[in-house]
Amino acid sequence: MPQLDELAAIVAQNTRDDGIFDTDIPRLSLIRFSTTTQPLQTLQHPALCIIVQGSKQVMLADEIYVYGPARHLVVSVDLPVSSQIIEASPDKPYLCIRLDLDLPALGTMIMEVAPPAAEPAGICSKAICLAETSPQFLESALRLLRLLDSPDDIAYLAPLAERELMYRLLRGPQAHKVRRMLMPDSRLQQVNRAIAWIRQHYAAPFSIEQLAAEARMSPSSLHQHFRDVTAMSPLQYQKQLRLQEARRLILANAYDAATAAQHVGYDSPSQFSREYRRLFGAPPIQDVTRLKQEPGRYVEA
């Protein structure tokens, strides 16, 4: 698809070095890395990710999503994932477009745009999906990225180009799944209320009954649908948030492991160290030392 070459040229032109770069277009970031990376556990916010060169692997619990230029990824709720660039080189770097989703605007569009043909059976309920990238989809992305060369037009034309891209998303091969992910009365939105509550209170203990009341679901329904959406239980989700925040505190704020553990809600330092090692592959101090020594190999990409 020739659109991929032009998109890759625009991303390369606007990312001279490796890293993640904000643009003048709201919520649009460009990503470039010239080497593969180690897996990084991170909290993936709702976004559309379009790879135009190279490839990447995303793991949600024990489910693996691998995609490159022929596919794009959509995430509709905050999900703890492990991501890793698996194809990149100095001559042919990994290049990606990430658009953080305006979920209220997309939800309004769902009510306005007619769905495609009859919904297929057996649609997965996960809050993450991969879809084939069509030429029409790439043309819409191109119209958005070409505005980087005409900044005076961004304020007026970028919302129109983004709306066209979202329209393609809602009419594409994964349209029914995207709609199910974002319909205001869907199970996923009920689970999203539980996710928002856990994120706000991640350091405090909670009961499934309490969380179910926040989500306006029964405890049994919450437990089932939470796992359907996130591939983990509410308590596993909370644990991932706690450990990722502890890692950030140790790395960015120079907390020692015991202080970080207490800050994120652990009463037992030994349990914290054990669970930290299980998630990140090394004890806290060793893990953070490794991150500082090889920052380019452990990136949110």
From TrEMBL:
SUPFAM superfamilies: Homeodomain-like. The keyword Isomerase does not apply. It comes from the Bacteria. Residues 192-290 form the HTH araC/xylS-type domain. InterPro entries: Homeodomain-like_sf (IPR009057), HTH_AraC (IPR018060), Tscrpt_reg_HTH_AraC_N (IPR009594). SMART domains: HTH_ARAC. Keywords: Transcription, Transcription regulation. Pfam families: AraC_N, HTH_18. The keyword Transcription regulation applies. GO terms for molecular function: DNA-binding transcription factor activity; sequence-specific DNA binding. This is AraC family transcriptional regulator. It comes from Pseudorhizobium pelagicum.
